[in-house]
């Protein structure tokens, strides 16, 4: 079939909406009509060149849509299902999945190749040119073909613009606080960067019972929104936050510090460690430029105060359980997804959406693709 998709032909260029040829799903694969897709910062790392990618690539890994057809052997979904894409596929059988670590599924070993899991080939093409797909999803498109391991049937009562956020940003931020951070009732938590991931981290900390939540971001609009999501204090920088946290916590500092800024900075790690209490945990969720991944930090501080630095991918969530869980919290009024969607855009305005993100105007911009069938 013919459809449209936003393609990144090389780093340093804009997204280009192309008419593409989409092959039908093969064994284990699913054809999805995309309804909404979040404009995550991860794709921006490809555009700027911070993170290499296999070009040309259809972007999009945070989306929701409707299953239109399935290939042979598909058992996890059926035509007509309303689904959220899991930004990391999960097989349910590998050692990581078997111990409840679906975010570390072995299928993700080939995620950067952007080809189909089953046979390593492409279903998306422009003329004779094969296209790759971000996170093996590629939902900056009106239709996409993915492996069934990347789709999760969900409650159709949740609007696509809200539901799509749980496929990456909300699950990642929420899980960074709840799972990787292990926030407990009464804890003090700092969230560094309160865009899409950070806003969800703030809400995760609130739902986990944190007493104090310090939002740190240079953009006043984002700090105001963070207060709406549950932050109790706000600061424009890590330096400013240090004095505030020391004063408010009587010198104890934060039990958990979650790093969710758009682009991580290795040179800030010592200052970030200073925000953490004895036995405090620093959760490294954000992506760093490939050239900026070796921090200089005082290792004696880690040993003497038992501070912990932990990595976190996809919020340490089990997406088949946690995406429906998050949507349930939304339906019960406990998780604010609507407030995170600052603005929606048609597919043709994807570059404007990313410019608004760069300008600090959005918590999350979302592409919305009405049904034209």
Features:
6-stranded parallel β-sheet, 11 helices, 7-stranded mixed β-sheet, alpha/beta, 2 domains
Describe the protein in words:
The chain is of the alpha/beta class and about 375 residues long. The protein folds into 2 domains: about 1-165 and about 335-370, Quinone Oxidoreductase, Chain A, domain 1, CATH 3.90.180.10; about 170-315, Rossmann fold (3-Layer(aba) Sandwich), CATH 3.40.50.720. The protein contains 11 helices and 18 strands. It has helices at about 40-50, 95-100, 160-165, 170-180, 195-205, 220-230, 240-250, 270-275, 300-305, 320-330, 350-360, and strands at about 1-10, 15-20, 30-40, 55-60, 65-70, 80-85, 125, 130-135, 145, 150-155, 190, 210-215, 235, 255-260, 275-285, 310, 340-345, 365-370. Strands 3, 5, 6, 9, 10, 17 and 18 form a 7-stranded mixed sheet that branches. Strand 11, helix 5 (about 195-205) and strand 12 form a beta-alpha-beta unit. Helix 4 (about 170-180) packs across helix 5 (about 195-205) and helix 5 packs parallel to helix 6. The model has no long low-confidence stretch (mean pLDDT about 95).
């Amino acid at each position: 079939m013919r459809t449209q998709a936003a393609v990144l032909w090389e780093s340093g260029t804009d997204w280009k909406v192309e008419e593409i040829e989409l092959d039908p799903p093969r064994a284990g694969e699913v054809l999805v009509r995309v309804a909404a897709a979040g404009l995550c910062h991860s794709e921006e790392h490809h555009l700027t060149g911070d993170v290499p990618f296999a070009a040309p690539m259809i972007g999009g890994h945070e989306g929701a849509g409707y299953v239109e057809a399935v290939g042979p052997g598909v058992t996890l979904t059926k035509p007509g299902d309303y689904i959220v894409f899991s930004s990391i596929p999960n097989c349910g059988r590998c050692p990581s999945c078997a111990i409840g670590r679906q975010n570390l599924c072995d299928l993700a070993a080939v995620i950067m190749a952007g080809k189909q899991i089953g046979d390593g080939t492409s279903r998306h093409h422009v003329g004779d040119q094969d296209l790759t797909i971000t996170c093996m999803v590629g939902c900056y498109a009106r239709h996409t073909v993915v492996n069934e391991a990347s789709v999760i049937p969900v409650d159709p009562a949740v609007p696509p613009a809200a539901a799509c956020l749980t496929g990456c940003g909300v699950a990642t931020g929420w899980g960074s606080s709840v799972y990787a951070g292990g926030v407990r009732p009464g804890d003090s938590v700092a969230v560094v960067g309160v865009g899409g991931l950070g806003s969800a981290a703030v809400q995760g900390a609130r739902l986990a019972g944190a007493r104090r939540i310090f939002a740190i971001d240079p953009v006043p609009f984002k700090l105001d929104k963070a207060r709406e999501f549950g932050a109790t204090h706000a600061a424009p920088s890590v330096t400013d936050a240090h004095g505030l946290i020391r004063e408010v916590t009587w010198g104890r500092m934060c039990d958990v510090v979650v790093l969710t800024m758009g682009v991580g900075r290795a040179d800030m790690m010592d200052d970030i460690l200073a925000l953490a209490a004895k036995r405090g945990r620093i959760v490294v969720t954000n992506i760093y430029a490939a050239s900026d991944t070796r921090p200089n930090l005082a290792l004696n501080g880690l040993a003497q105060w038992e501070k912990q630095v932990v990595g976190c991918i996809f919020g340490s969530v089990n997406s088949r359980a946690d995406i429906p869980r998050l949507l349930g919290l939304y339906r019960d009024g406990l998780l604010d997804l609507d407030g995170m969607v600052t603005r929606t855009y048609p597919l043709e305005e994807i570059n404007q959406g990313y410019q608004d993100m760069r300008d600090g105007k959005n918590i999350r911009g979302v592409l919305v693709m009405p049904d034209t069938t």
